[in-house]
Amino acid sequence: MSTALPFQFLVTSLLLFLGIIYRARTGGRPPGLPPGPPGLPFLGNALQLPSKDAYKTFTKWGKQYGPIVAVKVFSQSLIIINSVKLAADLLNKSSSSTSFRITRRMVQLSGFDRSIPHLQPTTEFNKSRQYTKMALGAIEMTQYEPEHQRRALRLVIKLAQNPKNIYNEIGVWVALGFEHIAYGTDDEEDASGFVEMGRHALAIFTAASDPMIVWAVDVLPFLRHFPSWLPGMSFKRKAREWKRVLRDILNKPFHHAVRKINAGLTSQCLISRVAESHSLDSLDEDDLVILKNAAMNIYIGGFDTMTSIVASFYLAMVLHPEAQTRGQQEVDSVTGRSRLPTFADRPNLPYVDCIMKEVMRWAIPTPFLFPHVQDPTSDAMVDGVFVPRGSLLIVNTGGIFEDPKIYANPLQFWPERFHDKNLLDPLSIAFGYARRQCTGIHFVEKRLWITIATTLATLNICPPTENNSRMPKAEWTDGPVRLPLTYDAKFNVRTPALLET
Ligand code: HEM
């Protein structure tokens, strides 16, 4: 029996226990909190929490109660921010007190609490991000430009060869790209089985962390002290099994990379950069764990998000041939169809930039992730807003990207809107805030841009059938990271010679 319970069911059954375990201090709405939907005693707004498309409900509440909305789930305050300015004030200006993360028991039990998204802002957090920067920093990503170009070409070749399995091709391409950056693994090698292990580890990470999946032990932490053979304690066995998967993905690719470094065989990667600057032998056991987690986080943080945004770009091209044609014309005018575009062409390819911004806005993979948390030990007052200690601070990025006051006809895919230089650049907020800003931001800006430019130069992306009978829809899955629903497309090669360069 699984102990991951559907939220509504869990809430209802917990009513029986609440009288005993609930602390009376959490009864009403504390004075000074921003407005929000009225809740029930004890439960707060738990029953109003959406089980699907949460960001749309957050937007609705924003229209009803204003740009900042407070709701309560049991004793947990959620502050939902529907305004770019308030998000910057709360999360950038007050970052020293708003950069915490929520502690989830299932995350702790399975060992994922040492991965960057779950680390509290401590020395370990700083070290972990520092390591990550050694592979993904702005300078490193600029040095990596030739590799980005090579890998973008590899994807278009793969899609042209095997258009039947778009998701698999993109997913394997994304994973091998991360394996190269983290562990220096060459091309198609994947000798440590990283791609498969990564998929497994990410599924676990998501199950343990998804705010919409409530584990019994997260609500009733004392359950962790009960023996695992008791009925309803299957979460303990699950956590033990998950820990084993985590141990494998932390160690196997790492040891493979170290063996290659020692044999002088590896290309530049996170592990080799650390080895050059510190010597791996000088790292103590704790530092090694931090380094292994930093390397693994490149996959955990990047896999679904990157797969999603690249798949959404191809979807946009199927659905909007006019944007595709305009992009192709711009690229052709610079390359003369005699060579592939490079990063040096970027200043002359403004429409490719517009497409990248519009894909990010129209199909943001993370409409409201990951919530920051106000310092659990102190309340705050920011711009007259009272933020109780330990509140979850949720920026409704998906809602901001669909706000017609910012973007006219927001549901329409229309890259031309970004010719207006005053329009909010989606990339300026899509990757989050301050100390917690996405560690993959420079990677995405480079890899996504060159993938778009290379695709426009080489492929015609078309609906799967001539009569448009199986036209894909602009629809995404629900979940912490959303992906476009599976679709088919044809990838016809425009200039075969370019695929041979
Ligand atoms: C389109 C692609 C991506 C989007 C939209 C995205 C978005 C985000 C967002 C919104 C956050 C939370 C920031 C905050 O809390 O303020 C985040 C965190 C994170 N991202 Fe990304 N991301 C993307 C790709 C990547 C890639 C490619 C990597 C790694 C190579 C990555 C690694 C991470 C990590 C490790 C964190 C946790 C940072 C922390 O908690 O300190 N992401 N990302």
Summarize the structure.
Keywords: Heme, Iron, Membrane, Metal-binding, Monooxygenase, Oxidoreductase, Signal, Transmembrane, Transmembrane helix. The protein is of the alpha+beta class.
* CATH architecture level-2 label: Orthogonal Bundle
The CATH H-level superfamily is Cytochrome P450
Q: Approximately how much beta-strand content do the residues carry?
A: 5-15%
Please give the count of helices: 19
Indicate the mean pLDDT. Answer: 90
Rg over C-alpha atoms, rounded to the nearest angstrom: 24 Å
Helix proportion range? 40-55%
Ranges with pLDDT <50 over ≥5 residues?
5-27
CATH fold naming = Cytochrome p450
N-C termini distance: 54 Å
Count every beta strand, where a strand is a DSSP E run of 2 or more residues: 10
Question: Describe it for me?
Answer:
This protein is of the alpha+beta class. The chain contains 19 helices and 10 strands. It has helices spanning 7-21, 54-65, 84-93, 95-98, 105-110, 123-136, 138-143, 145-161, 166-183, 194-209, 216-219, 234-262, 270-278, 285-319, 321-335, 350-362, 397-401, 441-458, 496-499; strands spanning 4-5, 68-73, 76-81, 214-215, 372-373, 380-382, 385-387, 392-395, 459-462, 490-493. The strands form 4 sheets. A 4-stranded mixed sheet has the order 2-3-8-5. It has a two-stranded antiparallel sheet with strand order 1-4. Strands 6-7 form a two-stranded antiparallel ribbon. Strand 6 and strand 7 (385-387) form a beta hairpin. The longest helix has 35 residues, at 285-319. The radius of gyration is 24 Å and the shape is globular. 45% of the residues are buried. Bound molecules: protoporphyrin IX containing FE. Protoporphyrin IX containing FE binds next to helix 14 and helix 18.
